[in-house]
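Here is one chain, start to finish.
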Amino acid sequence: MKKQIMAGFFIICFLNYSVSHAAEPEPPEDIAIGNFPAVVAYLNKYISYVIDDEDLAGLNIAIVNNQNLVWEKGFGYADVENEIPATVETRYQTGAVTGILTAALVMQLVDAGKISLDENIQTYIPDLNLKSHFKKTSSITVRQLLSHHAGLPLNLFKNSWSESPPSFHSLVDSKTAIHASYPPGLIYAYSNIGYSLLGIIVERVTGLSFAQAMQKYIFQPVGMSQSTIENKHSQDKLAVGYKDDKAGKRLLPRDTPAVGLVSTAKDLSRFVRRYFNKVINKNGLAETIRVQNQQVQLDIEKQVGFTWYLGGLNIKKAGPVIWRGGVTPYHRSIVAMLPQHKLGVVILSNDSRSWDEINKLAEKSLQLMLQAKTGIKTDKPDEDSERPPQKIVNHPNILKDTFASAYTGFSGYIKLTEEGDSYSASVMGWTLSLHKDTENKNWFNLEYDLLGFIPIDLSWLAGVKVRPAVVNQRRVLIVYYKQHQYLFAVQYKPDKIHQGWLSMPGEYQVSNSDALLESMKIKNGELLIKNNQLFFNYEFPVWYGLSLTLPVKTISDNEAIIPGLGTGLNESVSIKEVNGQRFIEYSGYLLKKQNKTEDFLNFDF
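Its structure:
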């Protein structure tokens, strides 16, 4: 009976969905050159459809062609509860989009001779307390801060977003030590800390506060009159942020040089137009979109400028595609441009679920604008574009005995075991099957076994391929997805657990939670020992039923790292004693051990 009720429930849900959701508007097939109104008319319908279909709170868009603003509009609500619509004057938190303005500000000071790109940052910040367990590493340069190759942690998360956050100057007070995650120049690792340090450098060479310097060098010259660096007084016309249909607290960032810009789509479109101006080479902007990591092997295909991504959006035949996205606890943003054709788009949203949609919208907008400006159609992939190239890294050694091994990466601990000509992978609580790709040598296709016996292709796994390789003397897994290749994981070889950590396994809860952690809905975690290896396991907050298992590599009796390669990995964890109690500290959070679990050793991957 229960099964019949559930079946009926799903049928009703399906019928309701089918009846109540309109079909997605079809884009115009042929757009005459110069017919920008056709693009605007379609996007108007498409965005309205997306807002309704995805039940998003609000969204603003601005599209530019050379020095002209083609279109700007607000959709949905800036404040759902009070039915305040999003208008062209609605302001949003822009997150990491802030960095493109910070980089432009730094480059003006470079041109003025106040900052040197390849200077050691401790020339400007001698009081920086930087710790490293790497031997014989070089100094961090301003250029490496700008391109996110300084080897610094993603963030010091505790109080990084709060109703009353500390200043970013707290990063250089006597009580704060910043622990390097990598040697400088090894790999791209986005860091809010790095851009906050740039903000401190700006202040010390100009004698101005960071907000004053941004006003003098960027906002006023560009005409960004509705933009501010966020503070307690910058809430005017700021859209209310939403997560899962619920209004979030109005949180302010600590790291304002990295994520503190509050702006409108129109204001940011004015900044984009500066890249289409003839004076681009005179104000340092050209350097911000030049490839900065061509010699960094572990970045694989990723190309970056100064916080800009150079490629990654799916816009074919358009020349360079340059973009930057931003994420705050409740807002999302993206700025993208085709500099060769002088086209750009800015999209801002106050709904945390909008990330995928604004990325698709940015691609769609630029594809259609390119067609309207040049006649180039980009919606059809190039011939054989689905086939991954054979040569993907400088040193693509394929060693069969290295594939079956343990790895660690963004999805945590991965265990690969050989099963004849195929492999089985345990990752995030799932079991994946890897089968040889018959058309692409050395690549493997992924399948997911539903309930252990029904092989299916999940939509997001379709087209995903994986292969082993050796890059920069490290054994890694490369993933191919949507015509791009990424470093996915690195081989993990555990060492002996240091004595101080042997008594630490058990269930843990954050004892000093804050508004950011509450917004992320992180649940309790568990420190485990399995097969003489140390792991931290917690339920992944985004997808129901998935758990993330992170290996913990101890480096002393009270220090450890979460090993891996890339943003947010290889970061420090420590044992800290407070008032006679031992805590695990990560990024400022103190994790307190709860009552002993019944049998924490009984854990399977």
